[in-house]
Amino acid sequence: MSILSFTRAWQALEEQTTIHVVLPNQIDPKNKLQVLWLLHGLGDNGSGWLRKTNLEVLTKYTNLAVITPEMNRSFYMNMANGLPYWDYLTKEVIPEMRKLLPLSTKWSDNFVGGVSMGGFGALKLAFTHPDWFSAVIPMSPVVDLTTLPKMMPDFRAIFDGALPDRYLQHLAEAAPKEALRKLRFYYLMGDQDEMKPESDAFAAYLNNRLGLNVTYQTEPGGHDWLYWQKILPDVLTWLLHVRLSDGKPL
Fold first, then answer.
1. Most buried in the list 90, 101, 163, 183, measured by CB within 10 Å?
2. Rounded to an integer, what distance in angstroms lies between the CA atom of residue 10 and that of residue 17?
3. d(CA 187, CA 193)
4. Residues of the chain with pLDDT under 70
5. 9-38, pLDDT tens digit by residue?
6. What pTM, to 2 d.p., does this model score?
């Protein structure tokens, strides 16, 4: 595998950030790479996936590019009292990385996942741009923004006024239904995670109310890297099956 770090200035943020990239050693110039956009959680950064898991070892067997952008404490939003991280991600990071690297732009070759705040970001990306991806992997996602004061003392940097209620549900309900139903979700949550009740309800909403293709898996584990490291092999195995199915339901 090749590990790359891109540090550059971005117009949206008016500052430099670093994006970490995992690439296969063998790249066929005739075929663009399938790519997993892998998002970090609150208090972490994109390097966490490389420092705290065996991502590099596991992706050796996937022939998959993995992109881990730096999103700070933004909750994947244009912050009310901060920087426009959502614009940075969607209007700069994703298109610019596709210019710099041989990444496929096909929806069937793009997948998005993340942990905690990054799980929220993965769901937001999928609901806002369902035609960009074929698979979504939220791991221990924050799905109820009204819980932010419990975990984030500086949440007012993101939101002025009342915290938005049912934020992800509103995005999902506004998304084009045909594109949304092409997505496959592998939704993972630890049994000891304090946010599990919210995820139980949200996964049921996606499956039963919206009729989406959601595999919801729970098992012993907390809201930490011990759990996320443990489930990472299952995530990549599931994703391998999705990629081999050529965009058709499993």
1. 183
2. 8
3. 14
4. 244-250
5. 999 999 999 999 999 988 887 889 999 999
6. 0.95
Residue 174: name the closest of 202, 213, 210 by CA: 210
DSSP-assigned letter for residue 156: G
Q: What are phi and psi of 87, to 5 degrees?
A: -65, -40
Q: What's the gap between Cα 15 and its chain centre?
A: 23
Counting Cα atoms < 13 Å in the Cβ hemisphere of 39 gives 37
- The Cα 185–Cα 203 span in angstroms is 10
| Tokens at 101, concatenated | 């690297």
Bridge partners of residue 110, in order along the sequence: 35
- Between the alpha carbon of residue 171 and those of residues 1, 34, 56, 93, 125, the distances in Å are 36, 26, 33, 22, 10
Rounded distance between C-alpha atoms, residue 165 and residue 228, angstroms: 27
Contact assessment for residue 55 and residue 22, using Cβ atoms and an 8 Å cutoff: yes
7 contacts 17 by C-beta, under 8 angstroms: yes
CA distance 84 to 65: 26
